[in-house]
Every structure is written in C-alpha cells, then in structure tokens.
TrEMBL record:
Species for this entry: Hebeloma cylindrosporum
Residue intervals of the Fatty acid hydroxylase domain: 138-274
A Pfam family annotated for this UniProt entry: FA_hydroxylase
Name the record gives this protein: Fatty acid hydroxylase domain-containing protein
Keyword Transmembrane: yes
Bilayer-crossing regions: 32-52, 199-222
Length: 336
C-alpha cells in the first residue's frame, strides 16, 4: 500500500506504529487510505456516512423503479392497480433529498465526536470478525424494531399524525423510493432508533467498531426499501423466515392505515395484538380463494381487488379519526 508525500502526517497521527499494511485485507487498506486522504477523522466519517446512505438508498431503489416499469412483474404486485408514475417517483425523490439534506447532513458531523466520546472505533483497523459483529447487528435490529414499533404508533396519533406522519401515508400503495418519504421530523424521530442502539451498546461495552454500525445501516436500508416495494415474490424473505416483516406485511399498513407498526419483525405486532385486522384480512382472502378455486383468473383478481378496496375504505375512516384528534381535525384522499 503506497501513499504520496502529501499525507505522511495524517498517516502517522492516525496509525502510529502501523507499518505492516500487508497484514490488512483490501477493504481495510482502502479504509486506511480514505482516512489518511481526508486527513480529518470528523470530516472523513461524516462524509463517508452521508455518501454511503445516499448511494445505498438510491442504488437499492433503482431496481424497484425498473420493476415497476415492467408489466411482467405485476403478477407479484400486492396492489397491482396502483403503479407509481414517473411524476410520483420524482416528487418522492425530491422530498427524500430534502429530508436528507435538512436533517441528516447537518447532524451527521456530530457522529464521529459522539462515537469517540463513547470509545467507538472509527478509523481503526483491523475490523472485528463476523463472530463479534453478528450478535451486535442482531441486537441493533431488535432494538430498532421495538423503538420503531412504539414511535410509529405515537406518530399515528393526533398532532403527530396530522403535522408529521401524514406525509408518509400519502401513498396507500408504497414503492421503494417512498421508504424515507417523510417529514424531516419523522426522519429524525425514527432515524434515532437506528443509531441509538449502537450508541447505547457502545456506552455500556466500549466494544464496537463503526463498520458494524455501517453494515447494520446498509441492511436496514435494504429492509426498509424492500418493505415499501409493494411486491411479494415467492422468494421474499418472509416466505423463508415467517417472523420477518417484508412488503406483504407493511403494504397492509399503508393500505389499511392501522396495524403492522413494526419494521423488521412481526412479533411485536403479534404480541400486542396490533395485527388483528391484518390477520383477519389474510383469513378472508384465503377463504375467498378456496371458495373460488374453480373461478377464472379474472374473477379471482376482481375478488381480491374488492377486498382491498374494503380494507382501504376502512383505513380512510381510521385515518380521518386519527387526524381529527389533532388540533384542527381533517380528512384525507389517498393517492391512487
């Protein structure tokens, strides 16, 4: 690994005594090169964190944009009559970028100083092994899921819904880009669940590397975008892991407004009974399919569409009631 003559001070300051770079793997070498090239750990961590989020978020959303444009995939679309238009995709993108630049970008420069205060490793190498990272990542997902379950329900009440969470429910049939289509305050509130878990863990253990946090964030972005994709494939993860949430679980939340408040796992909704309408809906769909086993494909599609419309009509009423508990009350027309 070679560095030019402009960075020896940063190299010596950040990695004193580290001379055998050949002992590092390729990724660790690039990690060192990045921090040495930037020369300031605060800027290096902040810039890398922001770029990683933008690249992963929009990079993961692109496949879903392509899938939405190909009619072949409609057979797996949960609400096949609601395909986002190019105008809706662009409007969504602008709101997401607005939230990222008004909330994430200003706050992200506090991440490295906070991490250092809690003794989190940032520019350090080598990275921890998988045996160390795996249980940490599971804990972070577990913590975030419960935090989101509680905070998400709070966002469905009165003032919080009317003035904050209402934006995210613009689309009764969500799509990948809409995962972070939200009021900046909601981005801050729910984003706190993602970062608080690692910070609390590090406070008590002082044994955490930021690379573990990054891996968790990348996986969380994949989960959130896929859950909003609006597609349920035979190979979707919830068909392999029954406790996993996925699009089939979260799509109902957008369609019905109530139920299914958690993100990654289904167990909190099951334990606290906030999936009762969802399970009743699934039971009705299964029963109708059995009763119409000899019906044509068009008849079965019409049946499912009718059930979805009934659920959405109930959701509009529930949403109006939640909004009415705010300061002024109100109603809502969903985007089709």
């Amino acid at each position: 690994m070679a560095f030019n003559g402009t960075v020896p001070n940063a190299l010596n300051e950040l990695y004193p005594g580290l001379t055998d770079f050949s002992s590092l793997n390729w990724f660790e070498q690039q990690w060192v090169a990045w921090y040495v090239w930037i020369g300031n750990p605060i800027i290096a961590t902040g810039l890398m964190s922001f770029l990683m989020h933008e690249i992963v978020y929009f990079g993961r959303s692109i496949p879903w944009i392509i899938i939405d444009a190909i009619p072949y995939f409609r057979q797996w679309k949960l609400q096949p009559n609601k395909i986002p238009t190019a105008a809706e995709q662009w409007a969504c993108t602008k709101q997401v970028l607005f939230s990222h630049f008004t909330i994430e970008l200003p706050l992200i420069w506090l991440f490295h100083p906070t991490a250092e205060k809690l003794n989190m490793k940032t520019y350090h190498v080598p990275f921890p092994d998988l045996k160390t990272m795996a249980p940490q990542i599971f804990f972070f997902f577990f913590f975030e899921d419960f935090f989101h379950f509680v905070a998400h329900q709070a966002l469905h009440t009165g003032i919080l819904y009317k003035h904050i969470h209402k934006i995210h429910h613009k689309y009764s049939a969500p799509f990948g880009l809409a995962a972070e289509y939200a009021h900046p305050a909601e981005v801050f509130i729910l984003g706190a669940g993602t970062i608080l878990g690692p910070l609390i863990y590090c406070f008590f253990t002082a044994n955490l590397h930021i690379i573990t946090v990054y891996i968790c964030i990348v996986l969380r972005l994949f989960q959130a975008i896929d859950a909003h994709s609006g597609y349920d494939f035979p190979w979707s993860l919830h068909n392999i892991l029954p406790f996993w949430s996925g699009a089939e679980h979260h799509d109902f939340h957008h369609m019905a407004f109530t139920n299914n408040f958690s993100t990654s796992f289904r167990w909190w909704d099951r334990i606290f009974g906030t999936d009762d309408k969802y399970r009743a809906y699934r039971a009705r769909v299964d029963a109708a399919k059995k009763a119409m086993k000899n019906a044509t494909k068009e008849q079965r599609v019409a049946m499912e569409q009718k059930l979805m419309e009934e659920v959405e009509a109930e959701g509009v009423k529930a949403e109006a009631e939640a909004e009415a508990r705010g300061i002024m009350g109100g109603s809502k027309a969903k985007v089709q």
